[in-house]
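Structure ticket #2291
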Amino acid sequence: MSMQRIALALIVLGAVAQLCLGRVDGGRAETGEDVSHQLGVLRRGLEAPSQVDLPFGDVNLVVVTDVHSWIAGHARHSSTMNADYGDVLSFYERLRKHAAQQKKDLFFVMNGDFVDGTGLSTTPPQFLTPLLEHMPWDVVNLGNHELYNTETVRWVVDEFIPHW
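Resolution: structure written out below.
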């Protein structure tokens, strides 16, 4: 994986972590004290921004990419990269509600490379399956890491794709 892809993935995770700490209101994400405490900001050591510009176009994407089975974020590597799948789902659900109010389209995309990286990523990735299938993806793209192992490819074809 190139350094650019790693940097982009980390930037996206950081942005999602920061935006998840706020609530979407009128096209801007604003952080409230109650939301910060509910999401465990003090426990995580994260500082939520007071406002983040969040422009909406006619078509909008929330893209999750290169997670490599890190379901709990990267808290021990960086306090700003601490979004887990629950945070991402919460962020998407709030954006979806906002997009619907604005009569805008919003698509939730898994951009691949969700395997290889932690002990949860077995071959095939049976321990990741319940979590990945719980997420309301509109699009699931396979990355190169899903194609490295024949057993993982069979799992994708026989079990993962039929779920959708």
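Closing remark: Residues 17-45 have pLDDT under 50 and may be disordered.
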